[in-house]
Amino acid sequence: MEFLIAGTVLLLFIFTIIQLAFLLSGKGAVETAAHFGARKFALSARKNIQKAKASALSEASMICRHRIGGNYTNLTMTTLEFFAPDGSPAEGVARTGDAYQVNLSHWVELVVPWANRILFTIVPIKKVRLGERFYFIFNASRLVTVE
């Protein structure tokens, strides 16, 4: 009997460690995706700001999806927003030296059974539950200057 209780607790502990590793990987991927997305935007915003936004989102979502524990099926889990320093959205024509703030949000699914419910309950972070799926929302922000 003690073996079953100890085994269950040990298994839950191992699952929690695995889920935490996926979450750390997810947070690192979001930070990296924000950096590379902002860089892609800065390099191509002078030619066409709408295409620059699209290519930056493509770059950021690819990095977020191709991480350890990433979800390869859903592209809508990543959003990228661009704002001028005064808070207005990035529109029109970008000039060399214009600064923009790039905000990335990515939903990271808690995929490890049992541990997902426990971590979803105790971790103080933005989170969403859709049916039986649990998501943490990671955010990253970068300030970029158009080149």
- Report the principal-axis shape: elongated
Beta percentage is: 15-25%
* Secondary structure tally, helices: 3
Into how many domains do the coordinates divide?
Answer: 1
Order of helices and strands: HHEEHEE
Query: What Rg is obtained from the alpha carbons, in whole angstroms?
Result: 19 Å
First-residue to last-residue Cα separation: 67 Å
**Relative helix content:** 40-55%
User: What would the average pLDDT be, to the nearest integer?
Assistant: 86
Parts with pLDDT < 50 across at least 5 consecutive residues: none
User: Sheet bearing the most strands, described?
Assistant: 4 strands, antiparallel
Q: Which oligomeric state applies?
A: single chain
How would you describe this structure to a colleague?
This protein is 46% helix and 24% strand. The protein contains 3 helices and 4 strands. The mean pLDDT is 86. The chain is elongated. The chain has one domain. A hairpin with a 2-residue loop joins strand 3 and strand 4. Helix 1 crosses helix 3 (115-122). It has helices spanning 2-44, 49-65, 115-122, and strands at residues 78-83, 99-110, 127-130, 133-145. It has a 4-stranded antiparallel sheet. With 147 residues, the protein is α+β, with helices and mostly antiparallel strands. The termini are far apart.
